[in-house]
Structures
1.
Amino acid sequence: MALLQIAEPGQSPLPHQVKRAIGIDLGTTNSLVATVRGGRAAVLPDEQGEVMLPSVVHYRRDSVPLVGTAARDLGAQFPADTLMSIKRFMGRGAVDASDDAKRSHYRIAEGEQGLVRFVTSGGDFSPVEVSADILRTLRQRAVATLGGEIDGAVITVPAYFDEAQRQATKDAATLAGLRVLRLLNEPTAAAVAYGLDAAEQGVIAVYDLGGGTFDISILRLQRGVFEVLATGGDTALGGDDLDAALADWVLEQSSAPALTAGQYRQLQSAARAAKEQLSVLEEVDIDLSGVLPGGGTLKVTRERFESLILPLVKRTLRACRKCLRDAELEGGVDNIVMVGGSTRVPLVREAVSDFFKRTPLIDIDPDQVVALGAAIQADILAGNRPEGDLLLLDVIPLSLGIETMGGLVEKIVPRNTTIPVSRAQEFTTFKDGQTALAVHILQGEREMVSDCRSLAHFELRGIPPMVAGAARIRVTFQIDADGLLNVSAREEITGAQSSVTVKPSFGLSDAEITSMLQASFSHAPEDKLARQLAEQRLAAWQLLEGLKAALAADGDTLLDKQEREAITAQMSELQRLVDGQDTQAIRMQTDRLGRLSEAFATRRMDKSIRQALAGVSLDALDNEVSQ
Amino acid sequence: MPLPEFQRNYFQLFDLPESFELDQGQLGARYRQLQKELHPDRYAGASAHEQRLAVQYSALINEAYATLRKPLSRALYLMELAGMSGERVAGEQLDGGFLIAQMELREKLESMEDLVDPASALDHLTTEIRADVAELQTHFSEAYAAQRMSVAASACVKMQYLDKLLHEAEQIESRLLDR
């Protein structure tokens, strides 16, 4: 994401300066921002001292969007202009999302490529744009508190988010002017927040019942490495559904005619308030005046509420059981971390406690724990912490594969595979003289194409005509540490190649993001040029600083005299250019030096491998093995 | 993008002896140690080229770990190192007795969901299959150590059959849970 480097022209980044790094929990109901200051993670409040920003945006004509509490207060009055629970729509198509939209009383339109857009009196907006408005508010809060632009952010996503939903989240952050250090799974973030205080070893289950999604993850912490063993959940189950179960019951009791959108919103908030009170009280009276035509009050006991939500809670436990099996644990779970406001519901706590036979950890506020963990990870990735602190090894939540004959999906990377990962599979042609092969990439656990999520199509052309089955086509899936996918195909005999970075059709293209950014920043042309120069300088500085350190450490042992001289000569040339104004020349020289130093970098990695293993003393190994 | 050229195989990468018997504790410890050095998170501030390299190395280490950790993939990998490709292993002749036993197990599995107490029947069956798998692993280990590659290959194929059955049993279990 070179577009958003923050360094000003002429200002080179200092190598060891503390970076302003933030963690953002972009939630269905509420969003938070946190940072690490003085070694401690803390959430950042707004000017009124509130840490939770309601994930609600209100759009109206001739006005800037309102975000947060002010927007939420307008929800009942202007339901179609006040967008809430937008996270449920991220990365989804209009057709796919129409049921949810109807329930929320939104007007939706189908945008390009089936993209869902909400129609408000302030204009049409995609879920990505709405999320960007929320993220922008949090970014501004962080800038004001930390006293300067943010160097990088970790944004959390439900572990069960698919490729399209992840990409949409990343697009929203980019649009909000944030440099994304990493997309981090919410349960993993929560485990990180606990992991730093908790015991150094052990298996942790994270039960995360948020506003709109349910995640369960099982992780093992061992010697500073957090390994996600398995993850599962339900993208369409959360606190909102608990509210809806109660709201629907209220409607049944009242035999009221169809509600208006505004009335339904009010009923939902009344149900939510009742749910929250029932965590402490045995019974509450729901005030229905202004909510239902008849008005009055309705008594709800905790028992009644629990019987209404029991099927939903059981659904979460089924996911837990599957996840436990996937984790292939030998012993049990040592700790359970509870995340999300809905885990305050006593029935949820009891059910989870019974299921895992452990008392859940609730020391850290379940609403804040994800943001705090994200802040810690942001701090690590920004380089603010000493090395060897904590490493996260995450997994992909859903299997990835391609379509084969007969509408079947051949899985190439199964779910719960640790990322990053690169995996290849060979295919062949099925017709004589076939010269092209369509590659259809899918995500999901089912066997039929029609039951899986379609991510992208591309075509490999230029296969020489051969008899069926003679061509050897190697399809490689590469997934980076954010869980984002790149697929390439190559015919082995001729070397014909084709590849695609999977931008699901529901995300935004790079060009769209660029133009939207330009519109929102409305930079003068000279600003844009200055920005490009600044970015290029930053890349050059990074390379130079890295190489200087690398040469000091390994220049004598890993390079011969000639190689070393060649590298230092090109470094001096880049050093000379970097203070000038010629963006293009800096770019070319950075590329040249990068290519020249490739072999050196590879040798250094190989050396790291040897050293890493030499560093594991036999004692330490024996220790660990005996545990 | 080509993978980094390691001169070493997966066992050498983790500095472990090339055999079917494997110390899982050592494998895990060395895996974590390598990731601590080479994971892309450790290169978040590095040049784009180094970040790319880190992704490739980290992916390779993950792949090596996943291959060696599970007995079946480890056995197949050992066969591959010995020059027996997956296709050749798959072409190994199986005895009729094994195939008949397979068919019986499969029939039992398929009729499972009609039983009165499918969950415990399923549990019983998977325990039985796992015991067979353990026995096959011993067969493989002995045959491989004695370099009787054809016997080792047929043990691999049988393990693959049983692995598939266990996978189907899991899917039935999921369906039972969702009822």
2.
Amino acid sequence: MSKLTLVTEGDTHVVVKRHFAATPEQVYRAHTEAALIQQWMLGPEGWTMPVCINDARPGGGFRYEWSNGKGGGFHITGEFLELAPFSRIVHVERMHLPDPTPDNHIVTTFIADGAGTLMTMRMTLPSAEVRAAVLATGMEHGMEASYQRLESTMSGANS
Amino acid sequence: MQSLDSAFFALSDPTRRAILARLAQGEATAMELAEPFDMSQPAISRHIKVLEGAGLIGRRAEGTKRHCRLQKRGIESMQQWLAMMHEAMSRNYDRLDGVLAGMQRETRKGKQR
């Protein structure tokens, strides 16, 4: 039940859903309080978030910096547009690699679901054109295929 | 990751995104690509070079004409980036389960007091 689902929707959306065994308030706080964010939003094994600046109020900005401890790293910057405790967060963010990626507009909702919480994160990519370029190579079969491809790529790299 | 940087940079421009969208429907010459835009041929050629440099499109010569097409490998590297995002998110949320369990214990302790 705790498994992450990640699907495309319409022309420009990506929707992520995940169930948590905690209250909406707890899950919301874990998404908005820097001290909590730094404990889990770390990405692959071995990465840390040495910088977590987070001004969680409408119009407030944030900056998350990740490091792999070997000189590698990148950061995300963004702005909060709307915060409705403990049910909804709207923000924009971009990755700096170091060139900034196109802005990703994200609506995250936390809804009581049984004894836990269903989190739904709906991302809006900058244009249908970006999605069209991706669709051109077989994305119409769903994102699952590329994950399977990646899994085989990664297991190949590990062996 | 270097080519991924240039791929995202290439996608940061609306004209280049439109060129990719056009090529998603099939091959086209630089002249055909320029048609829908109010832009000079050299300006379009510069955009094509950026997309080519990012590995998102390739060019094939046929006589004097050069046909542009989507480059599967470049587009796939972006798909892989999305897939890595999925992988990273799964790990993040597994860790978040642990953080939330800790918060629940704190809450219970607080209530007992």
